[in-house]
Amino acid sequence: DVKVTQSSRYLVKRTGEKVFLECVQDMDHENMFWYRQDPGLGLRLIYFSYDVKMKEKGDIPEGYSVSREKKERFSLILESASTNQTSMYLCASSPTDRGVQPQHFGDGTRLSIL
Amino acid sequence: DQQVKQNSPSLSVQEGRISILNCDYTNSMFDYFLWYKKYPAEGPTFLISISSIKDKNEDGRFTVFLNKSAKHLSLHIVPSQPGDSAVYFCALGTGNTPLVFGKGTRLSVIA
User: Fold this and answer.
1) What confidence score (pLDDT) does residue B94 get?
2) pLDDT 10s digit of each residue in chain B, 111 long?
3) Where are the beta strands (DSSP E) in chain B?
4) Which among B6, B41, B46 has CB closest to A102?
5) Which residues does chain B have within 8 Å of residue A4's beta carbon, measured at their own beta carbons?
């Protein structure tokens, strides 16, 4: 079974702090993704990566950066947290096989910025 | 502009009856269509998928229908059970680009 593990289920931080959200997958997947989920807005893609050291902007990258130093780990960084970044953050991974493959999600990190 | 639309934010169905969740899209390049289910405080879990060469795929109580000419995708759950109560997302893809998700439909199955 694919396991995508997000380091924290709940996190509370202060405005202006630098925040790190960590994600690790154990299936040797090439592709990794970060989304945020907000009521009425569904899942919105922040950043994704198709390989180590590679990163691509998603639909809403402003205020975020990412790091992928190892294949299994994909970190999301909030450079200077703001209250509008309070959200549920979801990490996902998928293999690069022929055709579209389902993404496997972690359980999410509910982040509150005060 | 939204490429993928789930026009019903919520749906209530009696236990034992059929649940029909709908998804419309605008980009004819999509060739792979998936449904995810999400419980509160958990990540989405993959439910069922269909490729563009088919118009129906069945897995137990879950059936996905694809109408390419109408750019319409639907998920049927028969019979509906209280444990099916969750938010359902359709997700569409092509090649190795990231999936595009709809905004979700909250299904409530009433006992």
Assistant:
1) 86
2) 678 999 999 999 999 999 999 999 998 889 899 999 999 888 999 999 999 999 999 999 999 999 999 999 999 999 999 999 999 999 999 877 889 999 999 999 999
3) 4-5, 10-14, 19-25, 32-38, 45-51, 56-59, 62-67, 72-77, 86-93, 100-101, 105-110
4) B46
5) 43
Q: Is A104 on the interface with B (CB under 8 A)?
A: yes
Chain A interface includes B96 (CB < 8 A): yes
Residue-level pLDDT at B79: 98
Q: Is the pLDDT of residue A98 over 80?
A: no
Q: By the CB < 8 Å criterion, does A107 face chain B?
A: yes
Phi, psi of B83 (to 5 degrees): -65, -10
Nearest to B90 by CA among B44, B59, B39, B43: B44
CA distance A7 to A113: 17
A69 to each of A75, A81, A105, B91, B110, how far by Cα in Å?
A: 9, 23, 20, 28, 47
A2, containing H or E segment:
none
Is B103 within 8 Å of A45 when comparing Cβ atoms? Answer: no
pLDDT bucket at A53, cuts 50 / 70 / 90:
confident
Spell out a b/e string for B20-34, using b for 16 or more CB atoms within 10 Å of the CB, else e: bbbbbbeeeebebbb
